[in-house]
Design a protein that fits this description.
By secondary structure, the chain is of the alpha+beta class. It has helices at 2-43, 51-58, 82-86, 90-95, 101-110, 113-118, 129-133, 137-145, 147-155, and strands spanning 122-127, 158-159, 170-173, 179-185, 188-191, 197-205, 209-214.
Length: 222
């Protein structure tokens, strides 16, 4: 009996030790798995900014770079806004601008819409409606009825090259095959020494041209 009891006791002790070691081993494995999970999570890189966020940060509006008190009259949105004009060729862009209705009518009457829209890298000095209003009504009506004279006046306002504010001052050939003199610096410029047309909103971008809105219609030498 004593022998059987000792044998049973040894067996029980062995079983207890075996279970204890198994429990310790399981705990170590769990701790190891937990450490690996924590390490993996800590090594996961943070998500970068979405493309939309980066694009909105880097994007620049078409109004950037424009200057002049007259720019305040340009609509904030829509086809006649800076952003709207930037997507259209110059004659089409001008047609949506509320300051340039008379100019657009004159360009249409002279048959210059396609000429201006198809040109590349031109600069247009665009007289406002108020600029045309300075011309006596009878004189303006006469000019609008004379396609040759009207064409000469309008093309005198177009330079076949891109003029930025940095190279705006100077003497330039026009589409009328004469010259246009621009004077000034910074944000203060006048075009045509005789007419003294002030640039009231400058460096407006369209799909194919740079536009400088002026407050006076400039007459070429006829």
């Amino acid at each position: 009996m004593n022998r059987i009891a000792r044998t049973s006791g040894l067996a029980a002790l062995a079983l207890t030790m075996s279970l204890g070691m198994a429990a310790c081993g399981g705990s170590d494995e769990a701790d190891s798995a937990s450490d690996e999970t924590t390490s993996s999570a800590s090594e996961t890189p943070m998500e970068s900014e979405s493309p939309m966020e980066e694009e909105s940060t880097d994007a620049m509006g078409a109004a950037d770079g424009t200057f002049g008190e007259g720019c305040a009259a340009i609509p904030a949105d829509g086809a006649g806004s800076f952003d709207g004009m930037a997507t259209e060729p110059v004659a089409t862009a001008a047609s949506a601008n509320p300051l340039l209705k008379t100019l657009v009518a004159a360009v249409t009457k002279a048959g210059l819409v396609d000429t201006l829209n198809s040109a590349e890298g031109i600069t247009v000095f665009a007289p406002t409606d108020d600029a045309f209003a300075k011309i006596p009504a009878k004189t303006l009506d006469k000019v609008l009825a004379d396609k040759k004279t009207l064409t000469a006046i309008l093309t005198h306002h177009v330079v076949p090259e891109t003029l930025t504010p940095d190279n705006l001052a100077g003497t330039f050939d026009t589409l009328n095959k004469d010259e246009l003199v621009v004077e000034g610096e910074g944000e203060m410029f006048t075009a045509d020494a005789e007419e003294q047309a002030n640039i009231i909103c400058g460096n407006i971008q369209t799909a194919n041209a740079t536009v400088y809105v002026v407050d006076t219609v400039m007459m070429p030498q006829m």
